[in-house]
Amino acid sequence: MPKRVFLAVPLAPELRQEIMEWKQAFNDLPVRWMNEQDLHITIVPPWFESRPEEVMDRLARFVPPSFEHTIKFDRVRFGPTLKRPRLVWAEGPTPTEMLYVKQTLERWLSVPRDPRPFRTHLTLARFDPDKFSTFPVQKLNKPVTWAQPIDRVALYESHPVTDGIEYTILAEKSFKV
Question: What's the whole-model pTM score?
């Protein structure tokens, strides 16, 4: 049976802690906050994979690009659209290096390419868009100064659970030489 997998940058413990402290100010929102260990920055969006072991093997042989770069997040808002939001997420500019890593990994791993434009984001919480009108806060645009080095990538599997989604890291590749 195919598994739903994706590629992402796992968050450093320091950034996860900073996010957990930030969210305390918004605990009154009726959302399903992401588990701290599940926070990640998606590079290649989910696809169904019937042979995840082969993807894991190819990822292990991947020669990462030689660069040091950091992803920066400058605000937290409702998303992905303001007309019908369903997430609380952090956004920031998309570095050219991030697009290069994404395209290189897609080619190397022979995974489907997402036709949508890439948006650097970090999902913090999910909610039912039909319940948004009852939220105590209707606009969210909070500045943040969060940063995460692009120093590794992981192949995640997503698992639906009763109250949302949980993730398991199947394989990880460091970009450090």
Answer: 0.90
Give the list of residues 6+ apart from residue 81 with CB closer than 8 angstroms, or none.
none
* Pairwise CA distance, residues 120 & 91, whole Å: 6
Task: Give the integer Cα–Cα distance in Å for 34 and 24.
Answer: 13
* SS3 label, residue 102: helix
Neighbours of 160 (CB within 10 A): 9
Q: Which two tokens stand for residue 175?
A: 């970009």
CB 21 within 8 A of CB 144: no
Q: What is the number of structural domains in the chain?
A: 1
Place of tokens 């991947």: 62
Tokens of 132: 């948004």
The pLDDT tens digits of the residues spanning 125-163 come to 999 999 999 998 899 999 999 999 988 899 999 988 887
Q: 95: domain range?
A: 3-174
Strands 87-91 and 121-126: antiparallel
CATH number at residue 77: 3.90.1140.10
Whole-number pLDDT of residue 177: 62
How many Å apart are CA 55 and CA 7, to the nearest integer?
10
